Structure formats: structure tokens, C-alpha cells
Amino acid sequence: MVNVNIQSCTKALTFPSVPPQSNDLTQSVPGMTTLSGRSAHRYPVPGSEGGRQDPFQNRLGSKSQFSELKLSQQPDSDRSLVIWLVILHCDHGVNNPSTMFIWMTFLFCLLWIGFLYHRYPYFLQDVQNSVKFALVRYTLSKVRERNDTILDRFLDCVKRHPHKPFILFEDESYSYLDTDRQSNKVARALQQHTDIKEGDTVAILFGNQPFFLWIWLGLVKLGCSAALLNYNMRSRSLLHCFSCSGANVLIAGKEYKEVVEEILPTLTEQKVKVFVLADQCTTAGMETFSDKIRQASSEPIPVDVRSNVRLMSPAVYIYTSGTTGLPKAAVLTHLRLWNLSFVQSTFGVSSTDVFYLNLPLYHTSGLMAFTGTIERGSTLALRSKFSASHFWDDCRKYNVTVIHYIGETMRYLCSTQKRPSDRNHKVRMAIGNGVRADVWREFLNRFGHISVKELYGSTEGNIGLSNYTGKVGAVGRWLLPYAIIKYDIEKEEPLRNSEGFCVEAATGEAGLLISQISQKAPFIGYARDPKQTEKKRLHDVFVKGDQYFNTGDLLWIDEENFIYFQDRIGDTFRWKGENVATNEVSDILTTMPSIQEANVYGVKVPGQEGRAGMAALRLKEGEPFDGTGTFRHVSRYLPAYARPRFIRIQNCLTVTGTFKHRKVKLVEEGFKPDEISDRLYILDDKDKCYVPLTQRMYDSVVSGMIKL
Known about the structure:
This protein is α/β, with parallel strands linked by helices. It has 4 domains: 6-121, no CATH class; 139-385, ANL, N-terminal domain (Rossmann fold, 3-Layer(aba) Sandwich), CATH 3.40.50.12780; 478-568, Luciferase, Domain 3 (Luciferase, domain 3, Roll); 573-703, ANL, C-terminal domain (GMP Synthetase, Chain A, domain 3, 2-Layer Sandwich), CATH 3.30.300. The strands form 6 sheets. An 8-stranded mixed β-sheet has the order 2-1-11-10-12-13-14-15, sandwiched between helices. Strands 7-6-5-3-4-8-9 form a 7-stranded mixed β-sheet, sandwiched between helices. Helix 11 (334-346) packs across helix 12. It is globular, with a radius of gyration of 28 Å. Its main location: membrane. It catalyses: a very long-chain fatty acid + ATP + CoA = a very long-chain fatty acyl-CoA + AMP + diphosphate; tetracosanoate + ATP + CoA = tetracosanoyl-CoA + AMP + diphosphate; a long-chain fatty acid + ATP + CoA = a long-chain fatty acyl-CoA + AMP + diphosphate.
């Protein structure tokens, strides 16, 4: 028998300290990465010295930080001590070769793990994430075998814990059973008052409220797909979105009755059935729906009603933000909903968590929260709209443990007045995308240790990245078979070699992110828009006949396989022969104390090649525009070609429903003082200041008398 004093052995095994994680707020990320979690910033950070920096100098988590910790440099006496302690604690260790072999193997494994931990500081996290990913793939394979949809998972939750809270909204709580019955009533009301059948599409125009979820589940029970209309759309854009889906029924919330009335004549001509969620409606061509739901039966819907639904059947139509034109309807299949639902589980969300959502349900992020809650069997706390002032009050009210963010929501939270209760909450995790690195740190400093899980993906794409390590600034790790290829900004197309194939970008070089289209990673495209769908496909990328999905995003990868977002292709522009990333410039501008928001874009200047940089700014309340200070700031932190030549001061910057800046109209308006009522400024290198742009100066720029 072998008697081992484990406590003594473990004391002797001295492992090096864990490398600093990204949530260590004392760390700094080089270049612009401290300012933007979405950029590969090549420009120096405010507070750093000198000009442009190597983006890999003093990189967070770089191998140089751990060079002194290599096992090969550990004293031999330390390792000998460990071995002798193990032998001394084995009664028959010396005379029992098999026992010695076991302990030596054990020791070797520990030393090897220690070596890996030093050499590859994210090794264990990579392994853990790979295991989670493998489990997801296994679960998906079982889902494929059974042809289950997310509805089947929901019905399973109803059976297992019918009375568990599923939706928390305002002062009401709705259990899984409540939601099941309400969705049954919706489905039966539609059966009785419409001619919809399996495979049809119904458009819904709702804000965040339980009825949104009940209607969607009711449609899935009928084997129908849902077109989730953006409630910010109006008139022509709204009609375009409705037509894209091919829907023959529209259900709208009562608060959007007037919005629907604008397009009602066209809907009537197309014989579309229109319902409004109200008890009374006198508008011709509209019917009430609330009364019909109340009168309907809550009996379960027979499974044979949806017997032909498959995993690749359309489940939802979600619309792109429309920042570059009219929105496109991305087709999400039932399989894609499963993929979205597994995001929470891969990050460690459990059935006991409460997930807080105040972002639109019509958006992919809302759908990810909703389906993820079903997959986990957890609880969803829902708010009608994002409110920075009520955010933490809601978290305390509903005992929220996981929050969702997108775009600028974290910055809005950090902009609120500080309160003693800022850290009085149970939130342990934040899942989302698009947070700047400086805001990331400020958020953690103020609201406590919350594990931030940054994501990258698109509604229609077949690629997704996740930053499971928590490293500030990165959008993910490079573990899956995607590619970043060289891209010609001026020609707006990938660079190809003499053989006609694309060329992969080097480490540290920004390029176009692409993902191979396959049976396991399909790209469905846009509804009724084959031209736009084909635009997102790249052919003959690395070999003849292959196909890749074009994300339209520029990203870069560092030497440790961390991936960083740089810019959208349409947003990056060329000036003076250089590429200018709008996100990088925006992030530099917003570090000025007086600037609240910055929307950077390129404008055409007659007689000039490329586009000159222009920034629409929203100043902080009560702050004047400081032309001299702004000039000094951009001159210090931006190379000459990246400095905005023009500045436009606006009271409010136009954004989408998910806080993305709209640029199309600003680009079209350019910098014409006779057509723009906002204050305009031009960079004056001679006076070292941004000066007001007059009509006379504009004419001089156009004629070439003023050189930019």
C-alpha cells in the first residue's frame, strides 16, 4: 500500500503565477487598442510618446512578459526537491518500480503542463473552449438526427419546469407554461382568422414586449416563418422590408398603428391581412387582434401542422441595418437559430442565470438572447428600450446575472452620473460586441469585476468569433479555419496573385475576413435578392471552384492568434495614398474631453484622388468646439493623412436601432456650406487650427487654391 502526504507534495510543487488576463485594468494595449476593442490601431495612444508605434510592442500577454518564467531556467534543486519529497512520502516507493513509474509520470505531466502554461499562457482556455465547441458540434449532430427545432427545446422546458419564470417584464412574471399557452392562443387565432399555412411568412412590427415572443413561438408552432420588422423604419423603407419577406399577413403593436397606416393603401392593394394588437380599431383595412387572442383556445397545436419543417427551412427574416442603402432581409434557418442559442452555453451561462435584454428583439442580438434563454432553460428579463439611467435598477430588481451589450451601450452606462450603488448588483457576465477598449476598462473599474465576452459575427454570415479569454481589445481567438486575405481598398476588391488566387494577409496586417461556404457552414443569403446574395460570395479564392463568404470587414491577427476588428470595407477610405480606418480616427477624437461622439467618413473633393477625411462631432453638453485644441490633438495622435480635413458639429448623430452611425447621407452632403446648416470647420495647417469653413474657402478648395 502506498501512503502519500498529498498536502506536503502540493506545497513542494511551486507553479509560476498565472499570466495577467485582460481584465487586469493596469494593463495597456498598444496603439489604438487601448481605445477601441474593434481596431488594429496603428496610431499612438494619447499619453504615449513619439510617433507611430509597432502594434506588437509591449503587447498585452506577449511572450516577453513570461521569458523569465521558463521551466528551463528553474533551479535544478527545486525539481530535485519535488522528486525527493514524492519518494519520501511513498512507503515502498524506492523498492517498487511500478509505483515510482506512476509518480514520475505524474510529475512529468505536471511539469509539462507548467511548461505549456508558461509558453502558451492561454493554453488551458483554448483547450476548454475547444471542448465546449466539440460538445456543441455533438449536440448539433443529435439535433440534425432528430430534426429538432428550438421550439422542441422550448416544449421540453415546459414539461421539465412549467412554472419556472421565463419572461420578466415590468412588474409581471410569465412562466414557461404561461408562454406556451399564450403562443397556442396566438397560433389558433391566426388559424381561425387567416388563411396562413405551413411555409408561409408573417411580418411582425413590435417593440420589446412578451407578445413579440408569444407571436413568434405561435408562428413556429404553425410551421411559419417570421419577418421581424425594424420599428424605426418608415414609409418606403418599411414597405420595402415587408415586400422582401413575401409575407401575406402583418401584425403590429398598437403604438405602430399610424406607421402602418402610411403604407396601408399599398398593403390593401396586395391583399395583405393587417392586424393591430388592440381591442378597438376604426381604420378600414385593419383588424384588431387582442380580442381574437383572448377568445382563442390554449390547447396545444398538433405536431403534424408543422411536419414538413426542416432544420434548413427559413425560421426568421432579420433585416440589415441599412447603413449603406435599403435594408436587406437575411434568411435565418432553424439550424442557424440553434447556432445562435449555443452562444450562452459556450460562455458558461446556466439554467439558474437571469439574462437581461434591453436591445431590440428584431435584431440578431435579441434573437440570440431569446433562443439562448430557451436552450439554457433560464430566465429572460426584458425591457422595452435601452435606458442607461434605469439599467442597474433593473438588474437589481430582477436579480440579473448576465447582461447583453452592443455598440455604444457600455459607453452610455459609463457616461451616467456615478452612484454609491454602482457595484451593488449580481451581474457576473456581459456578452456582446463593439465595445471600445477604453470603455471596457472604465466599465470594469466602475461597476466591478464582470467577465466581458466580446463577439464578432453578422446576421447573414457563416462565421463567428468569440473572445473567451477576456483580453481587452480582441474580438476572438484564431482557432477555426477562417482566412484573412489582402484587400485593395482603392479598387474595392481582394488582391490576387499571378495565378488569380487570393493572398493571405501577414500577421499584423489588416485584411478581409472570409469564411468557406460548406454544408456545415452554409450561406443562405438574402430573401428575394439574388444579386446582393451573390455579392457576398467570393469564388476561386485559394483553389478553383471554392466559395467563401465575404464578411465585408477588415480584421487583423497578432502573433498570439488574437483577432482585432479594424473597420468596415465601405467605411475605410484612401487619402494621400494611404488607407484611413474610420474607427481608428473616431476613437482618437472621442478621447478629447469635449467630444461625446464622432462619426468619421470620407468625402470627395473635386480634383483630388481618394476621399478627404471628415468628422461629424457631437460635443458634450455645455462644451464649445475648440479648434486649436482639436488640431493639437489630431496632430499628436494621428498621421497627417488620417487627420480629418473637415469637421461638422451636430446636435445629434444619426444612428440605427442598434447604435451604428449612419454615413450615407453625410457622405452625399459632403462639405458644402451653402447646403449644410450645421457648423463646418476646415483644418488650417498654417494657423494650426480648425477654422470656420466659409463659402469663399469652399470655392478655393474646389478650385485647388487651398491645398488639402
